[in-house]
Structure formats: structure tokens, C-alpha cells
Amino acid sequence: MKHLLATTSALAVLLGLAAAPAFAEEQTAWRLFVSDHAAPVVHALDMETGKAIETFNVKVPTSLYRSDSGRTVFAVQGKGDTISVLSSGISFGDHGDHGDIKVEAPKLLDVTFEGKKPSHFVDHGGDIALFFDGEGVARIVSETNVLEGKPAVREVATSAPHHGVAVAIGDYALTTEPNFEKPDELPVGIRVTDRSGATVGDVHACPDLHGEAASGNLLAIACAKGLLVVKESGGAPSMEMLPYGERLPAGKSTTLVGGRGLQYFLGNYGPSAVVLIDPKSEDAFRLIELPTRRVHFTVDPVRAKFAYVFTEDGQLHRIDVVAGKIDASLKLTEPYSMDGHWSDPRPRIAVAGSRIVVSDPLKSVLHVVDAESFKRGDDIALEGKPFNLVAVGGSGETH
Fold this sequence. Notes:
This protein is mainly beta. It has 2 helices and 35 strands. It is globular, with a radius of gyration of 23 Å. Mean pLDDT is 92; it is low at 1-21.
């Protein structure tokens, strides 16, 4: 009996230990990936300290795109006919009542995608579509497979090389339809194909197609006369044209970003304005005039009601997307004229948690703005011409 009591007591202790929650600490980690306008490098910075973690070499100067999960950053090198992939080193696990964060060293993966003139990158639910203009081909991969070093590629060919884009939605692929009469001009529509490559339905007209973004369960594609709004219906995509409002002046959007937390889209509209787009509203388009020409814009993924626009006079403007107006402005740089070539080095914006970061390529510096107070913080010096910015991070528990 004494032996049984002792065994029972020991088992109770073990069960108690097993039931006790593992010790956890809250951790916040944000990283900024910065490409150089002239040099074939990508810098990884720790935004909690402002210090560089690592510099990665690529083939040619690159544009950067982060995946929706933030686990990967794709370096699209249009002039190098290749796409490199970096692991951000930050990942999250969802445990229902809380999320875990795992922080490791960032690294350049031993994975590349080769092809003529890669351009657009689109992530939809972890399926990443990479479009190669020089071939008119989309290559679709799973982010999970890319991280495992075994990217099984599904190719979707269009009928001709062109400056296009593709989106993977489940078993379907949306690809741009080239302009056959004038192949060097923008696409004229969207074709839907299934996994066998068969076309589903008719081509959806979208003349002068350029610009796409997702917000919540909606995808928007910018056309000459409005936005093609895409929804999933029974697992398949359905589309409806949202014409530009009659109160808008003549013009169109060619770049879109999607709201996070609030469902809306922000687009350019002429050189000196942006437009807020709510596809579910009767008054879907709200134009916001800017003091000078627009350089770059983005939305705030943390503070859902804000978006930011940088203008050529060196000012960063905060937009209240609920009120539909600029509610604060901050002078950050010397003027960056929009005259000249479209690809000249000019500032870009990224939001890294509680910080808004604006690159200043001609001064070799990153300007940091406190997102809560909208006041300047400490600048970060970075050699060369820091240009494209991608922020990855968040908060979670570590065990």
C-alpha cells in the first residue's frame, strides 16, 4: 500500500508539471530589408536596434517583395533575368488564444527562379505567382515548398511576351491577356485557367491593365475605365467591373495597395492625387489632392485607419482613410523631382511596427518616424543608395 501511495503521489507531481503552462515571454522583432539602387546588394537591419544584421549579394540591383506571411522576401531582378529568395528569419505560429514568434538569422536561400525579364510578384494565400515579361509566362510556387528548398513550379503560359501579372487562386490562375495589335502596350484583359490549362469562361476585358492588390477577401485589378474586382465563389474566381465614379476627373489608377484591418484600396490617380476605393460603398471613390506630385505611397498594416504618401517636395503625409483626408504632414528630405526617368532613385516607404521608414537614396540614409506621434526619430545611415524597403515582423510569445 505504501508503494502504491508513493507511486500515485509521484504521478500526481508529474501530471501537475505537465499541466503547468510553459514559461513564455513576449518578444517583438522587426526587420527591414533594403535594396540599393545602384549596387546588387540587399541589407537586413534589426529595427529594434537600428543596426545591420547582414548584407546579401544578388546578381543586379533588385526590387523587393515580401510574402504575406513575412517568412520570405523575393528579390526580383528584372535586368538579371533571375529572382532570388531570402528567408526573413521571422515566423509566427497561431495557437488560437496566442501566437508564438520564432526569430532566427536571415539567410539567402539556395533557390532561384530563372527566366526572361521577371516583373510582378503576387502572393495569394501562400501561392506565389511570378510573372516573366520576356516570356509571357507565370511560374507559381508554394511558399512552404520554397522554404523547404523544393519549389515545385506550375507554369502558366500566355499567348505572347508582355508586361503582365498573374494571380494564383486555389486551382485557378488569373493571367493577363496581351494586346495582340500592339504587343508593347499594356494588357487588355484577364484570362482564367484551371490546373489543366483550360480557359474557364470568357476573357474579362480590362484595357490598359496595370496594378493589382488584395484587401481581405477581395482582389482589385486596375483598368482604364475602372477596377476589376475579383471574389472567390465556391472556390472559383468571379469578377465584376467597378467603373470610376462620375465625380472623378479624367484619369485612372495604375498602382494599387490593399488596406489591412479595414477593407479598402489606395491607388494613384493622376500625378498629384491618390484615390481611396471602397468597392462595397455607393460612393466607392474618394479623391485626395496632394500639394505636389506623388512619389510613393503605402498603407499602415498595424494602425488600420492610416496610410502614407511621400511627395516630391520632401514631405511625408499621413492619410486618415476613414475621414478621407490628409491629417498630418512632416518634412523629411530635400525635394525629389518627379521629372526625369521613372526609375531614378527616389524615396520609398515601409512600416515596421511602431516606425515608419522612408529611404533617402541621395543622402545614404533612412529616415525613421514614430508612427504614434508622427514625429521624427533617429536616422539610420546606410551606405550607397538605399532604395526599396520591405518590413517584416511583429510580436509573439517565445517559450
